[in-house]
Amino acid sequence: MDAARHTIELPSGPVSYLEWRPAAPAGASDVLLLHGGGLDSAWLSWGDLGARLAAAGHRVIAPDAPGYGKSARAPWPATHANLVAYVETFAQAMQLERYAVGGLSMGGGMTLGHVLAHPERVTGAILIGSFGIMPRQGTGWRSHPWHLLAWAMTHTGLMGVTMRAYAGRPQALARSLRGIIRDERQITPALVDAVAAEAASGSGLTAFDQWQRDQIRFGRVRDDYSDRLHAFPRPALVVHGERDSGVPVALARQAAARMPDARYVEAPDAGHWTQRDAPDLVTSAITDFLDALAAREPED
Predict the structure, then answer these.
(1) Over pLDDT 70: what percentage of the chain?
(2) End-to-end Cα, the chain, rounded Å
(3) Cα-Cα-Cα-Cα dihedral of 251, 252, 255, 261, to 10°?
(4) What is each CA distance from 265 to 31, 46, 84, in whole angstroms?
(5) Residue 300: what pLDDT?
(6) Local structure of residue 179 (DSSP, 8 states)
(7) Do β-strands 13-20 and 4-10 pair in parallel, antiparallel, or remain unpaired?
(8) What's the whole-number mean pLDDT along residues 274-279?
(9) Domains of the chain, each with CATH number or no CATH
(10) How far from 64 is each of 79, 107, 266, CA to CA, in Å?
């Protein structure tokens, strides 16, 4: 099922988004999906999953965040707080009344922030390899030196230089994808070309650099929602790859356990880009979750 691409004008500028509509729209639920940072976009994260969810009867809306994909850069820096505010602005502009919202990595953190700030219209949250659930990069005793290294690389600019070096070399880019997609069958030439095309624009890496500088503070992550998860106001689906190198799986298990109404699904041997690494498992988990939300919606 093909996606339609549209553009909507927000106060921060035009935002491009993809939309998948089900064949039988009657009774369809709305799902807002937020992609991750770095070399990502709505199409890269959700091109396959959006079609699958639409085939299951759901309307899927996936915007390119400002500065990513085909969306213009915003006049403000791409900090977490600004991105969370943008999600609310986008949802209002799209006139979304009752919808599930989900995100990958950076988009998962945006999902957490959005639901905590505006739970009244959200039916449920989908968190895939989600950011926003850890006080530092990594876990255990290694988290302190690992976080210090990440802070130093980010704030000296070395992180951005390294990412751009990989982005400009197709073979290196393909190797880097193996760090977030462990099933090499999913790393197709078409995917590598699409990621390379995103890298060529340069805009997403600039926005991601702003986000990293905002989030990776000395000794801590700036926005960690761990202490607020016990009062998370909506049902949640936490999906995580067993071999996620970006957000340790132990933190996802802890996050789900802290939430009052959460389902936890772990993808065996999958990496950080879980919906691309284990598409069948992730599709099944999300459709089951959305069906459960629809069944309980009259109670809310």
Answers:
(1) 92
(2) 32
(3) -170
(4) 19, 18, 25
(5) 47
(6) T
(7) antiparallel
(8) 96
(9) 4-299 (3.40.50.1820)
(10) 15, 11, 27
